[in-house]
Design brief:
Mean pLDDT: 91
Bound molecules: S-adenosylmethionine
Strand content: 15-25%
Strand order of the largest sheet: 3-2-1-6-4-7-5
Number of helices: 6
Largest sheet: 7 strands, parallel
Structural class: alpha/beta
Distance between the termini: 25 Å
């Protein structure tokens, strides 16, 4: 399981997602250009802790990210699963695979049409009528939680002798 962030705008949200991913043992792909400096130094300056525990890969742009994703043999190529308010399928009705890449759109504008088209699946989190969208980190936590529950990810964490330590 991986989390991918499409051109994130807000460093604090990326920090929250990196921390979530580090704790859950999920890798993160950040697809540029981002709305802030993505170097380790700048991320630390922005107060992003847990950076040293995160498995972070930076991609210059969406084309580079797609080339990387498709470089795996076709049968092993991870599916791109886009979280978007414009989807028909609700995330709890979807069958996740442990190789899925869960892609989140940017805070200001979501994901553009060509990214919607590139996705193998598009999922939404139902919210009350008239309310727009969830914070990106909250949306990530809900869907990663469901994906890990379905694919046995939490059981694997419980079996991991390095899990459950006393890091602050
Ligand atoms: C703050 S939202 C983006 C809002 C943006 N104005 C839009 O209309 O798409 C940032 C990202 O969080 C995810 N997200 C937020 N609420 C969601 C929902 N109800 N269903 C699916 N994804 C959601 C999506 O990936 C979205 O691109």
């Amino acid at each position: 399981m991986r989390i991918a962030l499409y051109q994130p705008d807000i460093p604090q949200n990326t920090g929250t997602i990196l921390r979530l991913a580090a704790c859950l043992g999920v890798a993160v792909d950040v697809i540029g250009p981002a709305g802030f400096d993505l170097t380790d130094r700048a991320l630390r300056r922005a107060g992003l802790d847990y950076l040293e525990h995160a498995d972070l890969t930076r991609h210059a742009d969406f084309a580079t990210f797609e080339a990387w994703r498709r470089s795996a043999p076709r049968a092993a190529s991870p599916r791109l699963v886009l979280l978007t308010t414009r989807a028909a399928t609700v995330f709890t009705d979807f069958t996740f695979q442990d190789t899925d890449v869960l892609l989140l759109g940017r805070e200001s504008a979501g994901a553009p049409e060509h990214v919607h088209q590139a996705a193998d699946a598009r999922l939404r989190i139902p919210v009350r009528e008239g309310l727009r969208s969830l914070n990106i980190a909250v949306a990530t936590a809900l869907v990663v939680g469901e994906a890990l529950r379905q694919t046995g990810g939490f059981k694997a964490l419980q079996a991991d002798p390095s899990a459950g330590g006393a890091a602050p």
